[in-house]
Write a structure and sequence with these properties.
binds adenosine-5'-diphosphate, globular, Rossmann fold, alpha/beta, binds magnesium ion, about 15% strand
Length: about 700
């Protein structure tokens, strides 16, 4: 159902513009803009019965009305409703207030009741003359923005409710996941906007009321339908069928690897090869904890494409990571006669030109790089497979751009997206339902679990001695300094200071410094020294966060660990424990002068100590932060679930997942209306 795109225009009033800013463009959007909470204007409360903190509506007689100057100028009005008295304070007031609140007048007032030394008080209550009719339903309070008054919004919502098409989109006879879901959409919305006063406020607030259940079912179904539609549309597209060739590069690489693949790597390798062999673009998300060995799986997939005569591109989010992938892949592939090209932003003009030529002629079968790979002047001869490492670091546009590098008319390349930030099952099933997912759920053998300790910054000295011990054993150490968002300069001085301190404390040891504002050549030189094992300690800001692989490093110190997010800590910790040596991670925390760590900071540090399992970390992270931040690039443009909560509504999600294919097959028209109603034009993001 295409909707006209409405954008703010000069002729619109301020509240109209504000509505659009809130995303309330269509009648249905208004109807689905549900109250944050309710106010009860259906009853008059006796002051004696009002509880502290309640917003109460009372009717009472004014017994005193005076202006005082202390502690500041204010109007003090005392009222009595026969059960108790209450003092109302107004800091801003006009003569009209005094007139309306003159002694002897009977008024109806609403405000938050506070207890206190002087008895009950209300700050700036609203008031009018007593009497008049009482509301029949609870009064909704909506989330709003500046310039949009509740009263205006309430009227707009009522109009929206009246005009919106709320006809049934559920196929006849659908089994509800919950008998409570069996309300019609119209009834549910009417009710949630204007509930009758006898309703359980608790059921409204925790969203367990049947009307809420109906809305959550609708919302989850819309999400499943739109993703399934996107998937089916993609299935109509064509891609080169890349069939495995026995004895060719794929098998040769497999044989030449210095290690055997884990069962999990073999399994996902087969899943990918299966996809590649079909003439339909693959859209697969490869999840695997840090260090699980995703790179080699990608390399083997690349060999399948190259064996079939197509090129492969591998895009990584940082130059360090791209450089490292390049080095590793050249080491594996050049002996097999595969030409690998690379593209990064800071490359010399001449080198870049040479690379571009190799890519365009098709001589380079594999292209590794950063965002530089998707620039306009990069032309592939025949791109068959695109791999995106750390996919959550890329946006929709970038993924689309990479896909657009396919030259063949009417075709798309296969896409493999990799991530080390595991996505909890419920999230994967909802937000990523259009993708196929492969999981490497096993680490290569011989790794010992990383022991994590939380240590106060006061004991820094002990940590430095521990570094000395590691170096004695020929190991290497990372020391990460935090990103202080407000000030990159502070950030840097922090890392520089630590670098100086460690250099002094560890004489005869090469201590390196790496931060994002260093010239690229310098960064590369530092990384090379560390990778080669010459440099003992690497102090860095979070630039090493993703993907860096130096198996000899066995100690990771994270300074001000309390400032990092949980997944980020886990990613950082994953830089060690990559070799056979027992590895450790020290989380140094600092507390503000005499202060304590916040509860969430403590929860994060505790989670790090308690588990090394990326999926468990992800689950806890979801618990602490909610899904919004979790979705990385996908979140921008992705309509987040507004009503359903994946923690508590898993059974509704299962229901929606089961219903979606049936509905698309048997009730395509209803499905289309349902998606249009809920998502309007917001399903573009699914294309990437
Ligand atoms: P990630 O999944 O985090 O990208 P990498 O691909 O960087 O992990 O792999 C981590 C390290 O493990 C690399 O040094 C890689 O060569 C090595 N590795 C990968 N697979 C295996 C395996 N099956 N056995 C032993 N080592 C492996
Ligand atoms: Mg990696």
């Amino acid at each position: 159902m295409p909707q006209p795109v409405i954008t703010p225009s000069k002729t619109m009033s301020a509240p109209q513009k504000a509505l659009i800013k809130l995303g309330l463009k269509r009648d249905i959007d208004l109807a689905l803009h549900l109250p944050l909470r309710y106010e009860d204007e259906t009853r008059i409360v006796k002051l004696r019965d009002a509880r502290e903190g309640d917003t109460a509506q009372i009717e009472a007689t004014v017994t005193a009305c005076e202006i005082t100057q202390r502690p500041r100028r204010q109007l003090l009005v005392t009222v009595d409703d026969g059960s108790d008295t209450c003092v109302m304070r107004f800091f801003s007031f006009y003569p009209s207030h005094q007139k309306a609140l003159a002694v002897g007048n009977r008024i109806r007032a609403r405000g938050e009741v506070k207890g206190g030394f002087m008895g009950l008080t209300m700050m700036h209550p609203t008031f009018k003359a007593a009497g008049g009719h009482l509301a029949e339903a609870l009064t909704p309070v909506y989330s709003t923005v500046a310039g949009l008054a509740q009263a205006y919004l309430r009227r707009a919502v009522i109009t929206g409710l009246d005009h919106a098409d709320l006809s049934e989109t559920m196929p006849p006879g659908v089994p509800w996941p919950d008998p409570r879901g069996a309300w019609t959409l119209r009834d549910a919305l009417q009710f949630l906007h204007h509930p009758t006063p006898d309703v359980s406020l608790a059921a409204l607030e925790d969203r367990s009321h049947p009307a809420w259940v109906r809305l959550k079912c609708e919302e989850l179904l819309a999400q499943q339908l739109s993703q399934l539609t996107a998937k089916r549309e993609r299935d109509l597209l064509r891609a080169p069928a890349l069939k495995m060739k026995r004895g060719a590069l794929h098998d040769q690489l497999h044989k030449a690897l210095p290690f055997g693949l884990t069962n999990a790597q073999q399994r996902v390798g087969q899943e990918i090869a299966q996809d590649l062999s079909r003439p339909v673009p693959m859209h697969r998300l490869l999840q695997g904890d840090v260090g699980a060995g995703k790179t080699v799986v990608a390399a083997l997939a690349a060999m399948v494409a190259i064996d079939a005569g197509w090129q492969c591109a591998l895009m990584a989010p940082t130059e360090i990571l791209a450089t490292q992938h390049f080095a590793k892949l050249v080491g594996w592939l050049e002996p097999l006669g595969v030409k690998v090209a690379w593209l990064i932003g800071s490359q010399k003009k001449k080198e870049r030109a040479a690379m571009l030529a190799l890519i365009e002629s098709g001589e380079a079968a594999l292209v590794v790089g950063t965002h530089a790979v998707i620039q306009e002047h990069v032309k592939f001869k025949c791109l068959g497979l695109a791999v995106i490492d750390e996919q959550h670091r890329f946006g929709v546009a970038q993924r689309l751009a990479l896909r657009g590098k396919m030259q063949a008319e009417g075709m798309e390349p296969h896409m493999l997206m990799m991530t080390a930030t595991p996505i909890p099952r419920t999230l994967a099933m909802s937000y990523y339902a259009d993708l196929d997912v492969s999981v490497i759920d096993e680490l290569p053998p011989g790794r010992t679990p990383i022991v994590t300790r939380v240590v106060s910054d006061h004991r820094r000295g002990e940590v430095v001695s521990r570094i000395g011990a590691q170096l004695q054993e020929g190991r290497q150490v990372y020391w990460v300094c935090p990103l202080i968002e407000e000030s990159e300069a502070l950030d840097l001085s922090n890392a520089t200071q630590t670098h100086a301190d460690l250099s002094e404390a560890l004489p005869g040891v090469m201590v390196g410094l790496l931060h994002s504002r260093m010239p690229v050549a310098e960064k590369k030189a530092v990384m090379e020294l560390f990778t080669a094992g010459v440099m003992g300690v690497l102090v860095s800001t979070t630039v090493i966060e993703v993907g860096v692989d130096v198996p000899n490093a066995s100690l990771m110190v994270i300074e001000h660990a309390e400032r990092f997010g949980l997944s980020q800590l886990h990613q950082l910790r994953g830089r060690v424990g990559r070799g056979a040596a027992a590895s450790a991670c020290v989380l140094l925390y600092g507390t503000p002068e005499g202060g304590r760590l916040s509860e969430t900071a403590r929860e994060r540090l505790r989670a790090m100590v308690e588990t090394n399992d990326g999926f468990e970390i992800a689950r806890r992270d979801l618990e602490i932060r909610g899904p919004g931040e979790f979705l990385g690039a996908r979140q921008s443009g992705a309509p987040l679930l507004r009503f359903a909560d994946l923690e508590t509504d898993g059974h509704l999600l299962d229901w929606a997942r089961a219903l979606a294919p049936h509905m698309l097959d048997q009730h395509a028209f209803l499905a289309e209306r349902h998606i249009g109603r809920w998502l309007g034009g917001k399903s573009e993001y699914l294309k990437a």
